[in-house]
Structure formats: C-alpha cells, structure tokens
Amino acid sequence: MATGYADLLRAKHAMRLLAGTLVGRLPNATAALGIVLFVRAEGGSYTLAGVLSAVYGVATAVGQPSLGRAVDLLGQPRVMLPSAVLSALGMGVFAVAGLGVLPLAFAAVLVAGLFTPPLEGGLRALWPNVLKREDRVHAAYALDAVAQELMFAVGPLLVTLLVAFWNEAAALLVINALGVLGALWVVVSPPSREWRSAPREAHWLGALRSRGLVALLGAFFFVGLALGTIAVAAVAYADDHGDSLISSYLLSALGAGALVGGILYGARLWAGAPEPRLRILVAALAAGYLPLALTPGVAAMTVLAGVSGLFLAPALACAFVVVDRHAPRGTVTEAFSWLVTTFGVGAAAGTGLVGPVIEWGGPGAGFAVAGLGGVAALAVLLATRRVLDTPAAGPGGASVPVAGSENDRNGAADAGFRTGHQA
Predict the structure, then answer these.
(1) CB neighbours of 42 closer than 8 A, spacing ≥ 6?
(2) Confidence class for position 303, pLDDT limits 50, 70, 90
(3) Using an 8 Å Cβ cutoff, are 236 and 354 in contact?
(4) Would 80 disulfide with which of 12, 117, 303, 365, CB 3.0-4.6 Å?
(5) Cellular component terms, GO, for this chain's entry (predicted)?
(6) CA-atom Rg of the chain in angstroms
C-alpha cells in the first residue's frame, strides 16, 4: 500500500500539485465552521450563522461550474489565481466589518463563495497528463479524496487553534491568505500552465447534458447536506458541553476516519463497474451517520464521528471515476466542478436547515438531519440505477462505450484504469 502511494508521489510535480491544491482548498473546507464561530462570537444566532453559511455555499455552487467552464476554455492560471484573490478579499471584508452592517456581511460572504477557485476539478483534470499511467490515475483519485478528508481533519483544528490563540476574525483572515498561496503554488507549476482541455461540443448545458452525471449529482447533493448539518450540529453539541474545542474533536475525528477509509480503498484496484460499488459505499455512509443522532458522551461521540467518516473518502473516490465515465468530452473541469457544486448546494441547504432544527430539538435533532441526508443519497442512487449503469450517449444519441470519455486516454473500458475489468 505505502509503496503504491510513494510511487505516485514520486512522479514529477505530483507532490507539488497535491500539496498546493490541499492548501488552496482550506478556505472552502473550513468556511462553514469559520463562519459559524465568527457569527457566534459577534453575538449572532445559530440561525444567522446557518443562513450566512448557506449564502457562502450557494455562491460557491453557482461559481464553481462557471469558473470550471472558464478554465476549460481559458486555461488554469487565467482563472484560478484571480478568483482566489477575489474570494480571499470577500472573506477579509466579512472578518473586518463583522455583523454591524448585515447587507455588507452578506455581500462579502457572497463574493467569497462566488469566486472560490475550482482547484478540485483542476487537479483531477491534471492527473492523467502528470501521471501518464492508468494505475497511477486510479491511486491519485483515491489519494485526492484522502487529501480532501485531511483538510476536514486538520482544517477545523487549525481554525479552533487560531481562535484560541488569537480570535475568530484572525482565523478567517489567516485561512484565506493560505488559500491564495496554495492557488498560486499550483498555477505557476508547468503542468497547470501547459494544460489545455480537449475540444468540446458547443452546448449551453455543458457537462449537464449527461443524464448519468445529473443522477450522480442529485445523490451527492444529499451527501453535502449531511456534511453541512454535521458542521453546525458539532458546534451546538460543543456548546451544550461547555467547551468549544469539542466541535473540532468531532470534525477532526470524522476527517480522520475518512482518511483511513480512503487510504485503504485506494490501496487496491477494484473489479467491476464503479456504479454498483458506489451504491454500496453510500449505503455504508448513511449507516454511519445515523447513530450520531444518539449524541452520547464526548468520548463515545468522537468514536462515532470517526466511524461515520470511514466510507466518505471511498465514496468520493468512486464518484470521481463515475464522473469520468459520464462527463461529455471537453468538459472535464466543469464536470468535476459540478460535483463540488452539489456539495456546496447540499451543505448550504444543510446549514440553512439545521440551525432552526437545533434550536427546536437540540444537537441530536441536528445530527438526525445528517443521517436522513445519507439515506436520501442512497435513495437517489437506487432510483437512478438504470441511468447511471447505461453507457454514455455518443453523437446523435447513439450508445457508445464509456471508453469515449475525455479522461479515458488509453481506451480502457473504465476511464483511467488498466483493463476493462478494473475501476
């Protein structure tokens, strides 16, 4: 297992791109917690905190596919760095101005979310050109999911440490400054500067003309909803126990669980098509979220949070492969950015919904919303299994093998993998 990942990271530029993207995505990964902590410190309610987090999430959801399409058309440096700077400036205004003028606070959070750079989609678009070999691309998708969960493990802890040693406003400023540096480190690299998307068919729907992709996005909306509710419910649980650091324990445990799950998942090549496997992984994910509603003592709750995260990174890694299989040619960054968008919209819906739910029924009711989100994601995958399991449509609507997807540069039946029996 370690040898495979070491081989991947020894590839030229791989470590730099992964690390830069990881740091560049910190503002987005910690925004929900950072906004909630800042609003509460300013005297705002959970409802206001949830609404502001929802504004950020919706703005991110709107901005990611639009910026992703711009990257496909214009290249990464022209889009990624300016958007990272504008996003950081928006959050900086929010941190400095506070809640004194609410319209300004809402506008600042809106700008911060709208211009969040599509670094996730950009990295996944770079992997085939950087790694060359199909087995390395497979491992990279899993490692990418693990890195994302590392952010969710380290990010909340970093935010709470900055709050403890400084204050909530400083935490927002430092995290977003780091985000700009991470984006800069990525876009000045040779792979990012040289990357160009494949030619694309002009279509106003872009990547969304794929029915399979739309079905996948519908399911991962509810995964995002679950994660958005957990972030706010964890803060409420910590408040009930009189220690704000408890929220970081829970979120870091969830991220650590996903880290372990992702490492184990990416250590092997999986037989068969990824769509049936994705349904199993999301079912396990839902089963892990449901017990959180019991809200036991802090130690037991931390263990439950860790267990609930075990299947998150594997589900994400598998979803990346499904995106590859269903994304129309020339829309790779946009398609992956739509996956980020569903998380943004889902998390926004979750944070907006869970505030009033917590005020009505306490943290347990908030965590119950997360469990229901996981169940809903599984229901969508089951309801759309025929669409997801059907090969993509080619020119004129004819059925073609998924080997025609943009990222399948070697003609394999599963994009980015070595043989027709691997996914």
Answers:
(1) 98, 99, 168
(2) very high
(3) no
(4) 117
(5) plasma membrane
(6) 20
Contacts of 6 (CB under 8 A, 6+ apart): none
Cβ neighbours, 10 Å, residue 66 = 17
Q: Is 217 helix (H, G, I), strand (E, B) or coil?
A: helix
**Under CATH, what is the fold of the domain 2-199+207-404?**
Growth Hormone; Chain: A; (1.20.1250)
DSSP per-residue string spanning 316-378: HHHHHHHHHHHSPTT-HHHHHHHHHHHHHHHHHHHHHHHHHHHHHHHHHHHHHHHHHHHHHHH
Spatial distance between the Cα atoms of 184 and 88, rounded to a whole number of angstroms: 13
Distance CA 342, CA 127 (A): 22
220 touches 319 (CB < 8 A): yes
Q: What is the total residue count of the chain?
A: 423
What number of other Cβ atoms are within 10 A of residue 345's Cβ? 23
Task: Tell me the pLDDT tens digit for each residue of 314-342.
Answer: 898 888 888 878 877 667 778 888 887 78
**Sign (positive/negative) of CA torsion 269, 272, 273, 275?**
negative
N-terminal to C-terminal alpha carbon distance within the chain: 17
Q: Which residue has the tokens 């876009």?
A: 187
- DSSP tag of 66: H
Secondary structure element (H or E) that encloses residue 263, with its range: helix 245-265
Q: What angle do CA 131, 132, 135 make, to 5 degrees?
A: 80
Phi, psi of 422 (to 5 degrees): -120, 145
